[in-house]
Amino acid sequence: MVLFKCDGCGLTKKISDKYSNKTVTCPQCKNRVKIRSLARKGKMNNRYSISDFVDRTAQKDRGQGLFELESDRLLEINLNGFVWTKMGSMVAYLGDVKFTREGVLEHGVKKLLKKAVTGEATTLTKAEGRGTLYLADHGKKVSILNLQGDSIFVNGNDLLAFEGDIDWDIKMIKKISGMMAGGLFNVKLSGTGMAAITTHHDPLTLAVSQNKPVITDPNATVAWSGSLAPELKTDISFKTLLGRGSGESIQMKFQGDGFVVIQPCEESYFQAA
């Protein structure tokens, strides 16, 4: 008997030796699985060999469509057209893919002015053609979102990629301009299509209601539903100016009906005085 283990659905069972070193179809999820023979007594154990490493780390086609998670920190895009990606996020590609940095007037004068005013740091790259594209962002965890006529705000630093048909715009948080070095901007995605965001470690989504507002640290806030319009809460006192504040002087307040996504890490977008 040999061991059958599907990486697609997790199904594990023993099957006949006749399937050893062959590729078979998983009866549960239809994923293609290569069966490796078990080491026998008197023969060299194949564990940790180069061939074993290649088998374990080989690219797997999960048949999930345009956006796939090759791993929880690596996004695979099966490209046939174009997508927008975070500049510098490409780690590999196969096929005929062309990369073009976002043009100065690519999205019109209005968005150009917004980028200048907000100090937006994220520059987009257009990836177009036909092939397989792999994206990552400093080992951060990747989450795929399928927009179906709805909208979501994403911190610009945490936006990895999105389909070209999705509408997007740069937004600033109410009353935030002039308070933060470089500005805290976010991108509003709306319409229909796939998008990918990144977080340091596992994201946590908190429900927001009118009677139950949620307060977050801006540096740990990743995304929130398009129905919410957060405001800044400030707790700047004389102690803060003397460098003896709590370290939580600027906060984001979410109130209404929706959700907010946070991460267990504070990225330094800005520092309070």
Task: Compile the SSE list and pairings.
Blueprint: E1 2-5, E2 12-15, E3 23-25, E4 32-34, H1 50-57, E5 67-71, E6 74-86, E7 90-101, H2 109-118, E8 124-135, E9 141-155, E10 159-163, E11 167-172, E12 185-199, E13 204-208, E14 214-216, E15 221-225, E16 231-234, H3 238-241, E17 250-254, E18 258-262
Antiparallel strand pairs: 1-2, 3-4, 5-6, 6-8, 6-10, 7-8, 9-12, 9-15, 10-12, 11-12, 13-18, 14-17, 15-18, 16-17
Overview of this structure, please?
With 273 residues, the chain is mainly β. It folds into two domains: 2-57, no CATH class; 67-262, Mitochondrial biogenesis AIM24 (Double-stranded beta-helix), CATH 3.60.160. Helices cover 8% and strands 45% of the residues. It has helices at 50-57, 109-118, 238-241, and strands at 2-5, 12-15, 23-25, 32-34, 67-71, 74-86, 90-101, 124-135, 141-155, 159-163, 167-172, 185-199, 204-208, 214-216, 221-225, 231-234, 250-254, 258-262. Strands 5, 6, 7, 8, 9, 10, 11, 12, 13, 15 and 18 form an eleven-stranded antiparallel beta sheet that branches. The chain has a three-stranded antiparallel beta sheet with strand order 14-17-16, with no helix packed on it. The radius of gyration is 23 Å and the shape is elongated.
